[in-house]
Every structure is written in structure tokens, then in C-alpha cells.
Amino acid sequence: MRSRFRSDRRLTVRMTVTLFLLGLLYVGFVAALIVLLKSWVLVALVAAGMLGAQYWFSDRIALFAMRGRVVEREEYPQLHAVVDRLCAIADMPKPVVAVSEMDMPNAFATGRNPDNAVVCVTTGLLRRLEPAELEGVLAHELSHVAHKDVAVITVASFLGVLAGLIVRFALYSGLLGGRKDQNTAVIFAGVLGVSLAVYATSFVLIRALSRYRELAADRAAALLTGRPSALASALTKVSGDIARIPSKDLRTAQAFNAFYFTPADGREPGLSRFFATHPPLQQRLEQLGRISAELGEPMVPGEG
């Protein structure tokens, strides 16, 4: 079933190309590991097991990591009412609604498809936003589900996670040190080198897709609600409040930046913008300003 969220052909093309390139990289990565480790059964079982776990249980993993819990309508009636209204407008299945007991204002969506999705908001976000702003944020997250880019990011990130785990295991277990014969050292050096290359390549590809999908979600949410100024206001407010939260309190959340409404670092990317999970705040606000002008809705001063 197709939702009423505005489709984005460029997003679809980017997701397809990213998955294709990562698929080629994945095949090469597994082949290299089989050659180096001389055990295709072990490599295949580990790779298939991790991919299956990440695909089928990504929603539970994300909720557990971010201390989120599923909430019923009786506990958060207004939150459920907004989600119900947006799902009715968008003509899409209602996702599971969850809340994370965190002061950091943010939200994220996860799940392998629209019928098995979760939308989670933090208590910090609920305390800070006005109803129209909250609606804009939730529309943004629901568009990720409708466009299926949240599932693509989940699958795409698997290769980087696997390569990163191998690198960390090699470094922290001292596999390259100690008393080992030359052949063993060469094998593990090869595994480490291949893993580093795969991690770096997948990192860049996923970040590029992640930045575009945020712009696509902003655009779709603004067009669905007809109130881009409310979404712009929420972006400005949330980004400003996150910037005031101590870095030590954001470290756990930063691992999930690619899934968040706004990154949990509170800083605008400089030279590192090409490796950022989100486009700069100013770029997002400028896009919303253009949509607002197209819709004939004046932006609130300071947001355009």
C-alpha cells in the first residue's frame, strides 16, 4: 500500500545505488574473509546470523539501547492522538509508539517495514515542543517509515557494523601482537586491512544517503502537514537545546545519530560535513523556507 507522503524519486535512486554498491562490497568482503580465513562455513554463518539479527530485531535493539519503552494510549493520549491523525492523513499503518526517558530532545523511527515499525520520542522532546511542532517532528519520522529508508539504513549499516567489530576485535584482543608465526600475522593483517577498507567505504556511502534522506523527510513532512514553519521551529528549538546538553550526556546517543531527527552532538559540521549523518541546520531551514513560500505560508521570523 502506497502512503500519501510525497514520493521522492531521487531518494529511491540513491537508496538503490547505495544498496547495490554495498552489496558488491559485501560480496567482496565475505570472499576476502573466506580466502584469508579458509573457512567459508564460519564466515557465512556469522555474516548471515548478524544480518538476520539486525534486520529482524533492529527495532528492539534500538529501543533497548536508547531506554525506550512501548507506551499505550492511556499513558500518552496526546502523543497517540497525533500519530493517529498523521497516519490517517498519510493512509499508512500506525507504528508502535514508544517513549524514551531522556532529557535530550529527539525522536527516531526504526523497523523493517511500515507494518513492523516503531516511532519513539524522548520525554525531553515532549516537554519542549508545542503541539504543531511535535506534529512536524512525528510527520518527519513517519515519512522515513513510508519511504522505507529506515529499513535501507538498517540493512546498509550492517556491513559497517560487521567490519567495525572485526577491526575492534583484532585491535583489542592483541591478535597482531604477541608470539605468533609469520603466516598467522599475515592473515590477521590482511583481515584487519580489508575490514578497515570496507568500514571506511560503507561509512562514506551510508553518510551520504543519510544526509539526503533527512532532507527528503523534512520535505515530505512539510508537504503532508502543510506547516513547514512548525517543523522549522522544532528544528531550531531542538538543535539549540541539544547544543546546551553536556557532551558526556550525549555520548551514548551519538551511536544512533543516523536514526535521529537531529544529531546528538549539538555542533554544526565544519570540514567534517561530508561524514555527518545530517545536513547542516541552515540547509534544512532554507529548504523549509522555500516550501513555505510555495505554500503561501509565511515563516516565523528567524526561521528562514
Automatic annotation (TrEMBL):
Subcellular location: Cell membrane
CDD domains named in the record: M48B_HtpX_like (cd07327)
Domain Peptidase M48 span(s) in chain numbering: 77-289
Transmembrane region(s): 12-34, 40-57, 150-172, 184-206
Keywords, in A-Z order: Cell membrane, Hydrolase, Membrane, Metal-binding, Metalloprotease, Protease, Transmembrane, Transmembrane helix, Zinc
GO molecular function, one term: metalloendopeptidase activity
Active-site residues, Swiss-Prot/TrEMBL: 141
Cofactor(s) this protein cannot do without: Zn(2+)
Cofactor note: Binds 1 zinc ion per subunit.
Protein's name according to its UniProt entry: Protease HtpX homolog
Membrane association type: Multi-pass membrane protein
GO biological process annotation, one example: proteolysis
Recorded family membership: Belongs to the peptidase M48B family.
Enzyme Commission code(s) on record: 3.4.24.-
First-tier enzyme category under EC: hydrolase
Binding positions (Zn(2+)): 140, 144, 214
Keyword Protease recorded: yes
Xref: NCBIfam families: PRK02391.1
Database matches in Pfam families: Peptidase_M48
One GO term describing the cellular component: plasma membrane
Main location per the UniProt record: membrane
UniProt keyword ATP-binding, yes or no: no
